Amino acid sequence: MNKAHRQLPHGPALLALTLVIPILILGVMLLSLKLPMLWQPPGAAYDPDRMVFLYSTLPRLVMAVLCGGALAASGAILQQVLRNPLASPTTLGIDAGARLALALATLFFPALFGWGRDVVALLGSSLAACLVFALARRQDFAPIPLVLSGLLVGLYCGALASILALIDSRWLASLFIWGGGSLSQQSWQPTVDLSIRLALAAPFAVFLLRPLTLLELGDDAARGLGLPVSRLRLGAVALAVVLSAFTVSAVGVIGFVGLVAPILTRLAGARDFTARLVWSTVIGALLLLLTDLLVQYSAGASSDLLPTGAVTAILGSPILLWLLPRLQASMRPSGGHTSGAEAARLNNSRNGLVMAALAVGLLGLVLMVLFFGRAPDGSWHWLDQSELSTALPWRWPRSLAVASAGALLATAGFVLQRLTGNEMASPEILGISAGSTFAVAIGLFVIGDMSSVEAFLAAMAGAAATLFLVLLLGRRAAFAPERMLLAGIAISALLDAVIGMLSATGDPRSFQLLSWMSGVASGVQPVGAASAAVVAALMLAVTLLARRPIELLALGAPSAGGLGLTVRSVHLLLLALAAIATAAATPLVGPLTFAGLIAPHLVRLTGVRGALPSLLGSACAGATILLAADWLARVGAFPFQLPTGLVACLVGAPVLLWLLQRRA
């Protein structure tokens, strides 16, 4: 490697200098009035402003530099090891795993903190990373499947954290602020502790510089040079997880720095991995420092309550949207499509038997949900004739609404998985659910108390606005499914960050929003339930009419176009169909259920192939999953009622992990 190649490129240096200029301006504006406090004469009276400056403001700025550099270095290592431009602690769910582990330890295993908060965060991050890699390994860790796996793991960890917050809000109320990434400090001790930990990890990063650079030659060439590729990847990923876990343990989740900083460094001209790692660390530190200075300058005395991590996500999401057209990431078929040989067996006897079994199972579950449950004294019993007139008017609207929502989500999941060829595609990643939640949050914080009808209308309006934005962003890419999903991910991150900022205010309405996000089917009236059933029937009928284009798309876009299919129009129609179905279901059961992800997998596992039986089976399976989850939510913690959406998420995620490890 010649001397010229070893020199750091001028592009990243220019980018760093560009960030330094506004940092200096904001720093001077923020600190100029406080600097004289450092030179206090001996024997002077106690000055609280001086103490705040010395033991809060200054350590906070140093903490921003340390956390930004650590996260950016973690992202650069992950992107190099996985050869994935979208890999980062946030997109791989590592941060969310650490956050969940700390929340669990706070409530149920406080003795673990005797080993250190970093150990707990590291354990959660490691488990989340292993889970993501297990989900994506069947698709050779391709960029988009890996990101979708990380998003789903992050959603699941977030759902668990929400359940914990609902169970005991007294202890986890501060989780909103800390989870958003709060850099607020009250002493130098956390900053010193993090500095020591990062200093201990730094030599390992230096040791891995040359081996990771050799990976650019390819795995075979690296092995030919005597490099243990598998052990190197494992060690590098472990180092990235450690860096992220240390940061999350210190300040909470700070998103997008680990993703954006390495990408900006690469776009600025850094080609050698050593240069990318060094400049990513520098640029990440400067980015987070600039963001935190903006937060402190704009929020003033309220800056301690404004999570810097949420603000960073708000700034980072538009950058991800800007990068979408520049990403050359293709999606690998995952086996979710119906091949020509399979299409020839659409009418085999297995399909009929499976459909009959699903229908009988759903009917039996409906009878159990309506007539079997808990008596007022907590005992199990079937409704007798005298109780039908009092209990059924409460049970059947809720059951019908939940079953309709399950069918809608399963239909959306079926369409997305067939359209993208990716078994990780689900309604949650379209961004529609986040749009509904955002609209309800704005209504609660601006208008005040909202009725169920007002919340439903707000959720539908938010879903419609998000759908319009996703379609607008995908128009230039001819509505390519993978670009639409990535746009949905970016929009979800942006809206979730805004919701996190609102929740971090500590307003009691935050828990009202959390309750709505958990599913509000218990308050559905008969008219609403009937309307949901009609919408589900219409969406299913329209999807059935589109089954022929869905089958043709399985041949690939060029082949489908050669057979006379207008691919762009079909993509737009199917994406809009999935989005409308998701928007109609979200106000009923909340933004997280995973029913749309799991139901098509269950049907595929039984051996059903072909668009028609798979679609009908998925709708039936989705209704069954949510009905069962709703019944468990109603009777599991009697006399209390658990949130339907979160129970479905808890039950569904382990089933999903089992399904994804099987080869149908």
Shape: globular
- The beta-strand count equals 2
How far from one another are the termini? 48 Å
The residue fraction in helices comes out at: over 70%
Strand content: under 5%
Largest sheet: 2 strands, antiparallel
Order of helices and strands: HHHHHHHHHHHHHHHHEEHHHHHHHHHHHH
Overall pLDDT metric: 75
Oligomeric nature of the chains: single chain
- The order of strands across the largest sheet is 1-2
Radius of gyration: 26 Å
Helices, by number, come to: 28
* Uncertain parts: 1-9, 328-347
Note down, in words, how this protein is organized:
This protein is an all-alpha fold and 664 residues long. 72% of the residues lie in helices and 1% in strands. It has 28 helices and 2 strands. The protein has helices spanning 3-6, 10-31, 48-82, 94-107, 117-136, 143-167, 169-172, 175-179, 189-214, 219-224, 229-251, 257-267, 273-299, 308-323, 340-343, 349-371, 388-420, 432-446, 452-474, 481-503, 509-517, 526-545, 547-553, 557-562, 567-589, 595-605, 611-635, 644-660; strands at 372-374, 380-382. A two-stranded antiparallel sheet has the order 1-2. A hairpin with a 5-residue loop joins strand 1 and strand 2. Helix 16 (349-371) packs parallel to helix 27, helix 22 (526-545) packs antiparallel against helix 25 and helix 27 (611-635) crosses helix 28. The longest helix is centred in the N-terminal third of the chain and has 35 residues, at 48-82. The model is unreliable at 1-9 and 328-347 (pLDDT under 50).
